[in-house]
Structure formats: C-alpha cells, structure tokens
Amino acid sequence: MRITLDDETFRIPYGREEYEGGVIHPYRSLVEHPEQIDQIPEVVGQPALRELLKVLNGSEGRFESVRIDSTYHAFEGAMVHVAVIGFIFRDRQLFSHFDSCLLFAGNLLEALHAEDAFPEGEDAAQLELQRATFGESRQQGWIMDLFLLGQGTDRKACDAELALRCNALQQLFREKYALR
Prior knowledge:
With 180 residues, the protein is an alpha+beta fold. Helices cover 30% and strands 37% of the residues. The mean pLDDT is 90.
C-alpha cells in the first residue's frame, strides 16, 4: 500500500460538473440519506463496492464517504479496474487533524498486510490524503482517498479481484472501525 499527500483543497459538498473525460456527479451524504446509494452510477453492477459504501456510511461507522470514481484501463498487457472512495472522519475534530488521518493510514496499512486480498509488494491499494473544506462553515480538514485495484484479462476478472478487496475491507471496517 502506498500513502501520498495532495495539497490541493477539495470542497465538500460539490455539485454536478461536466468535463472532457465525463461527468462528476454531485455529492450525496449517504450517512444522512442512505437510500440515495442507488443514485451513484459507480456502484451499478458492483455489489461489493456498493456494500463497502454502505458499511462506510452505516450507523455504526466512524467515516462518511464524500466521493467515488471508477475507471477501467489497460496496464502492462492486462486490464485494471480502479475504484476510488473518498471518505472523511464523521468526528469533525478528527477530520480537522492531519495526524488523525496519518495514524489511521498507518493502522490501515498494517491491517491490510494481514489480508490475503492485499498481497505485500503489490499495488492493490493506495491512500491519498488531501486538504478539504466541509459544509457551509468551510471547516478545514482532510479527505482520505482509498484507491483499490482489480486486475485481470478482462472486465469480469478485474471486477472479481476488486470485489475480493472490497469484501476484505467491508469486514475490516465492520470489525476494527465500528463505533461501539
């Protein structure tokens, strides 16, 4: 797993935006409106990714997803499916402290090393920390973008590997990062 920093500030919430590569769909708070999950195009046909979003945003969770992206592309003779889930701490004190995100990143790295779905030395996941402002008050904090990769000879194989990783993360977030 690789951890990177991005110093560009991301504003939450955000609206729909069209760009040369496609469409950015508007922010949806799945914590406040879990029924809106089916309005997120990236989870259509991706049940494990959908369930991971449900777990992240569930009533027992510590986090809230704030963006998602999903792309397929060719890489070194294979196909890769990259899913990116941006999430923040629900606790706005933790959200505002960089060290909270860095501590979480280190703990996540250790937990993923114990998972068969994330072999050591393989770029199966990456976590990027980026500055963010949240809500009308524009509270300063940090978003954590989790990049998950599924690789294979075709889309079906990529999706199967990505689903294994999403399933492992679902379990990890339920067991280790749930509020008790």
